[in-house]
Design brief:
Helix content: 25-40%
Shape: globular
Number of domains: 3
Structural class: alpha/beta
CATH topology of the largest domain: FAD/NAD(P)-binding domain
Distance between the termini: 32 Å
Bound molecules: flavin-adenine dinucleotide
CATH superfamily of the largest domain: FAD/NAD(P)-binding domain
Radius of gyration: 23 Å
Number of strands: 19
C-alpha cells in the first residue's frame, strides 16, 4: 500500500452508524474509505457463539422505530434476515417491593396494576387537560411528575430509562433524550391526547412500515454488521487503523494513522465524516482548538456491565416475556434482565435458557470498577432472590465491561449541537456524526448513517 492515498471521502468508525454510511456511499458509487481502529466491524454490536449459546455482548434488540431500518434490511436482501419475536413475549415486568409485576398492556390492567398509586391513576385522567410545560430544558423526571405523577416516574419512566439509557431521568433533558415525547406535549398539549390524535393521522407507505416491533437478526446482530461489510466490500475498509489524527490543509483533510502492519499512512480527502463517540474526537479532529472540541467531548457516557447467563436446566421464574426492569427506588444492584431465549429461538442448546443482565449505568457507576468475582457474587445474589432458581448453576457466565456505553443527553446538549454546527461551517467538508447526537438506539444510528451519506454526497 502506498503511504499517501487520495480519496474524496473518509469515514471514521465502522460501528452501525459508520457501516450504514458506508453502505449508502457505496450505493451512490462514492470514492471513499472507512477507517476503523478495531480489527472487526460492528462497534459495540458483537455476537458470540459458545457451546451452542448464541449471545450478544452489546445491544440485544433494536426497535423498528425508523423507516430506514426496514429500508436497510430490504436493501441487504438475502444477506441477512430480520427476526422479530412473537406476540407472546410482549409482556414486560417491573420490580415492585421485590416482586415482578407485569406492565399494564390495556385499560383493565392499567386500572388494576399495583405499580401506580390510586391517586396517580386518577391524575392520568386529567393529563390531557394539563397545560404544556414552558421550560424547554425541563428534565424528564420533572416533566413526568408534572404530567403523570411520581408513581409513574418511579415505576414506568425510571425503569424504562434504565433499560434504554442506563440513565437518570432527573439528568436527561426531555427534548434531547426523548424528542418524540417532548413534541407530543408541545404540539398537542398532552401525551395521551397527542398519541391518540397521531394514531388517526393518515400514514405514508413508509410510515406504515414503522411497526415499532422489537427486532434482532437471525443468528445474532453481528450478522447485520457483517452483511453490510460484505455488501460494501472489504476493500472499502481499513481495519486496525490506530492513532488517527487529522489536519485541515488548504480546505482539505489530511488523515494520518498507523495501519495493522505498523506503517504510517496519510489519506488526503475532500470530506471527513466521523461516526465514533464524542470521547474520541479530541484526538481524531486534532486541528480543532481545545476549548471548542471540549464542548463536544465533555458529553457524559454511562459505563455498563453486561452479564450473560446460560442455564441447561432452568427451574426458576418462567421467563414468559421480554424481560424485567428494576426501578431505582427498589435499591437493587441490577438495572434489568432480558429473557433472550424467550425472545428469539435457536439461541441455546436444546432446552437451554439464556438471560442478559445489565448493571451499573448512571445509577450505580461503581459497578464498572468491580472485579469479575465481585460481579459474579452480586449477580448470583440478585438472581437467586429475583428469579428464584433452586440453585445457581449457569453453564454460561460471561461478563462484558462497556466503557463509554451510552451517551446521556443532558443539559449540555444544546451547546454541543451548536459546536458541531459551528465546526462543520468552519471546516468545509467536515461532518460530525455518531451517537453524540441524533439518538442512541440502533434505529436512530441507521437513520443517521444514511443521512450522513446523503449529506456528504450533497443530495
Ligand atoms: C451495552 C450496550 C447495550 C445497548 N443496547 C441497545 C439495545 O438493546 N437497543 C438499541 O437500539 N441500542 C442499544 N445500544 C445502543 C446501540 O447499540 C448503539 O447506539 C449503536 O450500536 C452505536 O453504533 P455507533 O456506530 O454509533 O457506535 P459504535 O458501535 O460505538 O461504533 C463506533 C466505532 O468507532 C470506532 N472508533 C472509536 N474511536 C475510534 C478512533 N479513534 N479511530 C477509529 N475508529 C474509532 C470504534 O471502534 C467503533 O467500531 C446499546 C449500547 C451498548 C453499549
Amino acid at each position: 500500500m502506498s503511504n499517501i492515498i487520495e480519496k474524496d471521502i473518509v469515514v471514521i468508525g465502522a460501528g452501525l452508524t459508520g457501516l450504514t454510511t458506508s453502505f449508502y456511499l457505496q450505493k451512490n458509487n462514492a470514492d471513499f474509505l472507512t477507517l476503523e481502529k478495531s480489527d472487526k466491524v460492528g462497534g459495540v454490536i458483537q455476537t458470540e457463539n459458545e457451546n451452542g449459546y448464541i449471545f450478544e455482548t452489546g445491544p440485544n434488540t433494536g426497535v423498528v422505530g425508523q423507516y430506514e431500518v426496514v429500508e436497510l434490511f430490504e436493501n441487504l436482501g438475502s444477506l441477512c434476515e430480520i427476526e422479530t419475536p412473537g406476540k407472546l413475549v410482549s409482556k414486560r415486568y417491573i420490580l415492585k417491593s421485590g416482586k415482578w409485576e407485569a406492565m399494564p398492556m390495556g385499560l383493565g390492567s392499567a386500572i388494576s396494576t399495583p405499580l401506580f398509586t390510586f391517586a396517580d391513576k386518577l391524575r392520568v385522567l386529567g393529563e390531557p387537560f394539563r397545560s404544556a410545560g414552558k421550560n424547554p430544558d425541563e428534565d424528564l423526571a420533572s416533566m413526568v411528575k408534572r404530567r403523570l405523577g411520581k408513581s409513574f416516574l418511579d415505576y414506568a419512566i425510571d425503569p424504562f430509562i434504565a433499560g434504554v439509557y442506563s440513565g437518570d431521568p432527573a439528568v436527561l433533558i426531555t427534548r434531547y433524550a426523548l424528542p418524540k415525547l417532548y413534541r407530543l406535549e408541545q404540539d398537542y398539549g398532552s401525551f395521551i391526547g397527542g398519541s391518540i390524535k397521531k394514531s388517526f393521522k393518515k400514514k405514508t407507505p413508509e410510515e406504515m412500515k414503522v411497526t415499532r416491533k422489537v427486532f434482532s437478526v437471525k443468528g445474532g446482530l453481528s450478522k447485520l454488521s457483517n452483511a453490510i461489510y460484505k455488501s460494501v466490500g472489504a476493500d472499502k475498509f481499513i481495519l486496525g487503523a490506530q492513532n488517527i489524527k487529522s489536519e485541515y490543509v488548504n480546505g482539505k483533510f489530511e488523515i494520518n494513522f498507523t495501519n495493522s502492519n505498523n506503517e504510517n499512512i496519510t489519506i488526503k480527502a475532500n470530506k471527513l465524516v466521523t461516526t465514533s463517540g464524542a470521547f474520541s474526537l479530541d484526538s481524531i479532529l486534532s486541528f480543532v482548538d481545545n476549548d471548542s472540541i471540549a464542548k463536544i467531548t465533555k458529553l457524559k457516557y454511562a459505563n455498563v456491565v453486561e452479564v450473560i447467563l446460560g442455564f441447561k436446566n432452568w427451574n426458576g421464574m418462567k421467563p414468559d416475556g421480554f424481560g424485567g426492569l428494576v426501578p431505582s427506588i427498589e435499591k437493587r444492584d441490577l438495572l434489568g434482565v432480558l429473557f433472550m431465549s424467550s425472545l428469539f429461538a435457536n439461541r441455546t442448546p436444546e432446552n437451554g435458557t439464556l438471560f442478559t443482565i445489565f448493571l451499573g449505568g448512571m445509577r450505580k457507576p461503581e459497578m464498572y470498577n468491580k472485579s469479575e468475582n465481585e460481579i459474579k457474587a452480586i449477580v448470583e445474589k440478585e438472581f437467586m432472590s429475583l428469579m428464584k432458581p433452586s440453585e445457581f448453576n449457569p453453564e454460561l457466565f460471561k461478563i462484558n465491561y462497556h466503557k463509554n456505553a451510552i451517551p446521556q443527553y443532558g443539559i449540555d446538549s444544546g451547546e454541543r449541537f451548536d459546536m458541531v454546527d459551528k465546526l462543520e461551517n468552519k471546516y468545509k467538508g467536515l461532518i460530525i456524526g455518531g451517537n453524540l447526537k441524533g439518538g442512541i438506539g440502533m434505529a436512530d444510528r441507521i437513520k443517521q448513517g444514511k443521512e450522513l451519506a446523503e449529506r456528504v454526497c450533497g443530495f
